[in-house]
Write a structure and sequence with these properties.
306 residues, alpha/beta, Spore Coat Polysaccharide Biosynthesis Protein SpsA, Chain A, 2 domains, three-stranded mixed beta sheet, transferase, Glyco_trans_2-like
Length: 306
């Protein structure tokens, strides 16, 4: 292992050995000197033996570590990767994404350009549709698929602008100062769609005076699993977003639930029941208005109980 790599590329994976191979190969093909970065794969797969067997094919590769982490959860896996990292900067890449050869180099340039206050640097996420993109998926719904495009200028992001965790790097000292990624949030297995873990870290960094920087040349391609292109998945995703917001911002969620309750009281009980019955049966043509109502209904249930 190199004694002082500049960056640690951390790939967290869970039961995706087929797709993570392409992710790993894309990082092995980075165009910076091999001594300047390391690769850490944190395998959260349920079958430890299979994980170790898969990781064995990378034995002997310079500055490469493959570890099996038995405790489930994406946030935990990311924290494990950060603690194992030797570099001051950790760059996270999901197991269904691939990076171009200049990815790490461009992330490094972002830190250099904005100096020590640059705590987080990330870039665009371009979707790769394994199956055809749904015709009902409008641009205002793209965020639920981790699609990120903040334009062609390298700049500090505004408070309301965000980076996706599948293309997200951070200085380790800033991450540890923020308490790491919350293990109460983030994906855990195949059923949970909890999120907000990167958002909370970014908010903590900004509160301490750090900058979140966007580098358009540090893009990655993100493969969209066919299971995510259904209206049912998107409805689940929105319901879990409400749960994530309640867990991460309980006071704000209470205020939102009060507003939602007022809005829903304007409809009769029968009208609400008919709307949600039709929405749950619908398998296509989901809209942002539909998702907004699902979100607020879940907030009401969680925060008010009625």
């Amino acid at each position: 292992m190199a004694n002082n790599p500049a960056l640690s590329a951390v790939i967290c994976t869970h039961n995706r050995h087929k797709s993570v191979s392409a992710t790993i190969n894309s990082v092995l093909a980075q165009d910076i000197d091999r001594q300047d970065f390391e690769i850490i794969v944190v395998d959260n797969s349920t079958d430890a033996g299979q994980a170790r067997q898969f990781g064995g094919q990378y034995d002997g590769i310079e500055n490469f570590r493959y570890v099996h982490e038995p405790v489930p959860g994406l946030s935990n896996a990311r924290n494990v990767g950060a603690h194992l990292a030797l570099a001051p900067i950790v760059a996270y890449l999901d197991d269904d994404a691939v990076a171009p050869p200049q990815w790490l180099r461009e992330l490094s340039l972002g830190y250099q350009k904005f100096g020590d206050r640059a705590a987080i640097v990330g870039g665009p996420v371009e979707p790769v549709w394994v199956t055809p993109r749904p015709n009902w998926l409008t641009s205002d719904l793209e965020g639920f698929f981790s699609i990120v495009d903040h334009g062609g200028e390298i700049r500090e992001l505004l408070p309301h602008e965000w980076l996706a965790g599948c293309n997200y790097s951070i200085r380790r000292d800033w991450l540890f100062a923020a308490g790491g990624f919350s293990t109460e949030l983030g994906r855990k297995g195949a059923l949970s769609l909890l999120s907000n873990e990167e958002t909370l870290v970014s908010e903590s960094v900004r509160a301490r005076g750090g900058k979140v920087v966007y580098v358009p040349a540090a893009s990655v391609k993100h493969y969209i699993d066919p299971s995510r292109t259904s209206a049912d998945w998107l409805k689940r995703r929105m319901a879990w977003q409400a749960v994530s917001d309640v867990l991460s911002r309980p006071q704000e969620s209470l205020r939102r639930a009060e507003i939602a309750s007022y809005r829903f009281r304007r409809y009769s009980r029968l009208g609400r029941a008919i709307f949600f019955a039709n929405l749950l049966r619908r398998r296509e043509n989901i809209t942002s208005i539909d998702l907004d109502r699902i979100y607020h209904a879940i907030l009401i249930l969680l925060c008010r109980g009625s």
